[in-house]
């Protein structure tokens, strides 16, 4: 309704240009006075058989987003980092039981978080375990099989080995990054004039829809001011 043109393509690189920026994709190139990067993050692959098959039907990558779908049920978390441990603690207040599974000999995380895990009677930590595959039916996940031959009956699984960012197109601009995330100020401005970043790709504490929408409103308003200036 607003006349916005949406073009599908994969941006390969963004270059500085006398006009501002040159955005080059696999099928087009555009000049722009300002650019807002909203390329987000995606979960690192766990290479679990049937993982992709059951996404949205028992496989989730966000406990705070989908935890309530599993109220009173059994779930598993596969990972060994603070995010996995925090999500296990969060889910323990909602679900019947949480299996916290990791490949290593012990959990690696903040000492206080590990203490809280040990105090939770409905969190079972399973170490030195690798998930072979996810099993289910037409309705969704029903269980998982481990390589050691053990099987667990669960209703949901959260593979949480970490996230990967999508900022390779900025390699020529070299904005300040922190662990793969773009550093901005409160106006969503990077240290490259005219380049803004919003959403999960931005360095921030909370990655949820409401914060991404807020980022977008701020960046759009400031980008308009920048272009008009």
Summarize this structure briefly:
The protein is an alpha/beta fold and 229 residues long. It has helices spanning 63-66, 82-92, 111-119, 209-228; strands at residues 11-17, 20-25, 29-32, 35-37, 41-43, 74-78, 97-101, 123-126, 131-137, 140-146, 151-153, 156-159, 163-165, 177-178, 181-182, 195-197. It contains four helices and 16 strands.
How do the helices and strands line up, and which of them pair or pack?
Blueprint (H helix, E strand, L loop, with lengths): L10 E7 L2 E6 L3 E4 L2 E3 L3 E3 L19 H4 L7 E5 L3 H11 L4 E5 L9 H9 L3 E4 L4 E7 L2 E7 L4 E3 L2 E4 L3 E3 L11 E2 L2 E2 L12 E3 L11 H20 L1
Parallel strand pairs: 4-16, 6-7, 6-12, 7-8
Antiparallel strand pairs: 1-2, 2-3, 5-13, 9-10, 10-11, 14-15
Helix pairs in contact: 2-3
Task: Provide the descriptors you would attach to this structure in a database record.
alpha/beta; three-stranded antiparallel β-sheet
How would you sum up this structure, described in words?
By secondary structure, this protein is an alpha/beta fold. The chain has four helices and 16 strands. The protein has helices spanning 63-66, 82-92, 111-119, 209-228; strands spanning 11-17, 20-25, 29-32, 35-37, 41-43, 74-78, 97-101, 123-126, 131-137, 140-146, 151-153, 156-159, 163-165, 177-178, 181-182, 195-197. The protein has a four-stranded parallel beta sheet with strand order 8-7-6-12, with helices on one face. Strands 1-2-3 form a three-stranded antiparallel beta sheet, with no helix packed on it. Strand 7, helix 3 and strand 8 (123-126) form a beta-alpha-beta unit. Helix 2 (82-92) runs parallel beside helix 3. The model has no long low-confidence stretch (mean pLDDT 93).
